[in-house]
Amino acid sequence: MNYETIIGLEIHAELSTKTKAFCNCKNEFGGEVNTNCCPVCMGYPGALPVLNKKVVEYAVKAGLALGCEISLYSKTDRKNYFYPDLPKAYQISQYDTPLCKNGKIKIEVDGKEKYIGITRIHIEEDAGKLIHGTESEDYSLVDFNRSGVPLIEIVSEPDIRSPLEARLYLEKLKGILEYLEISDCKMQEGSLRCDANISIRPVGQKEFGTKTEIKNMNSMKALQRALEYEEERHKKVLSEGGTIVQETRRWDEAKGITVSMRTKEQAHDYRYFPEPDLVPIILTEEWIEGIKKDLPELPDEKRKRFVREYGIPDYDASVLTLTKELSDFFETCAKGHKNPKAISNWVMGEVLRIMKEKELELKDLRIKPEFLRKLVDLVDEGVLSSTGAKQVFEEMFKTGEEPESLVDKLGLRQISDEGAIVELVKKVLSENQKSVEDYKNGKTNALGYLVGQCMKASKGKGNPQIINKILKDLLS
């Protein structure tokens, strides 16, 4: 039987406000345990929350960027459940009146555009963090620094039809949030987290199948792999006459499997009710319009502009605008430069390669944008060969030195003086008469051999374009 996959994603993004959602504690990652906390975020009896206005502003920014309707009236609610790092035994969230609703994200799959609906965006607070001992250490500790950190939860419609689409959706969403500068979206630090709901149904059936939820996915690759595994597991269970159980599962990266955690909760299990310690959130059209006017250029707009202004292919522009940091680096290099396509090639090729190999972020590289501009100039001017340029690039990465000084330091300056090259070519021709005769008899590949001999004679410093031209002139 042929099945159709149905996927919906719930994305939690920590907001980059200076303070937490309902108190004045610092909102920062990596502080000493239990130093950024107070009676409010630790749930002491009688401690009262006060909503951080920036949290609402950032959530509205996200909503506007994702084409959502913004609610002029919304409220907060208590989501009741017990967990060791949730000292109040409830989380302040939003239930039936989310701040934003009915948005969409456009992705491109196999060259075709597709829109994924966004059901809602609501604000809530994060829980603390449990720190577990090793297998031989029978204990768990609680760090409340993360307790009360502001989140937005972005819930998609069940419009996603494959694990690949899910990954593309999350990549696109991550890019938009980074461009808005409302979240750093570092999945490795937990500031962007993804839960996925997946079910399958026979092709042509209207009713959804029983879904499972997958948690604990901390990378784009993990999301796609977990969904692929779960998709096949569902098919296998049904093909063998079994029944899918609605449950929450976690992704085990090391084993490459999902593992059952608990049966899936329903909304009524949380016993939502309006948060009595906070007033409703009432916005004005003027305030929302002010935020809308300040929205930055978003990835899709920037991609089109890069194609228009810099004359690069759409594929290049889509790669270069995947993150704000990368797009800013490229534009700093390419602005006003005569060869933006060459810069695009270097950024997509060598820059991304070395970042991946060394597991570095762009800000950690010693290679400054002006250095990359100059490196392209040196190649275009014939001072450096493409091979020599890669050697200079590697040294720039290691030392942070500017390229022109490295050219002489490494002895890579090309010989472009035509007079000197003419003499060198004449010598090579006199020593390779058979190849000369072969070329004159129509064996054009002999020219490549002669170019190679000239490059060898020049110890790799001869300008290959000039050598090629002079060879053809002398052989004609």
Notes on the structure:
With 476 residues, the protein is an alpha+beta fold. It has three domains: 3-288, no CATH class; 296-409, no CATH class; 418-475, Orthogonal Bundle (Arc Repressor Mutant, subunit A). The protein is built from 15 helices and 16 strands. The protein has helices at residues 53-65, 163-180, 220-239, 285-293, 299-310, 314-320, 324-334, 340-358, 369-380, 386-399, 403-409, 418-431, 433-440, 445-457, 464-475; strands at residues 3-14, 69-70, 73-74, 77-80, 90-93, 100-109, 112-125, 129-132, 140-143, 150-156, 192-202, 212-217, 247-252, 257-263, 273-274, 281-282. The strands form four sheets. It has a nine-stranded mixed beta sheet. Helix 7 (324-334) crosses helix 8 (340-358), helix 12 (418-431) crosses helix 14 (445-457) and helix 13 runs antiparallel to helix 14. The longest helix has 20 residues, at 220-239.
Largest sheet data: 9 strands, mixed
Structural class: alpha+beta
Strand content: 15-25%
Which bin fits the share of residues in helices? Answer: 25-40%
Which key features would you list for this structure?
asparaginyl-tRNA synthase (glutamine-hydrolyzing) activity, protein biosynthesis, 40% helix, elongated, 20% strand, Asn/Gln-tRNA_amidoTrfase_suB/E, Arc Repressor Mutant, subunit A, 476 residues, Asn/Gln_tRNA_amidoTrase-B-like, 9-stranded mixed β-sheet, alpha+beta, 3-stranded antiparallel β-sheet, ATP-binding, 16 strands
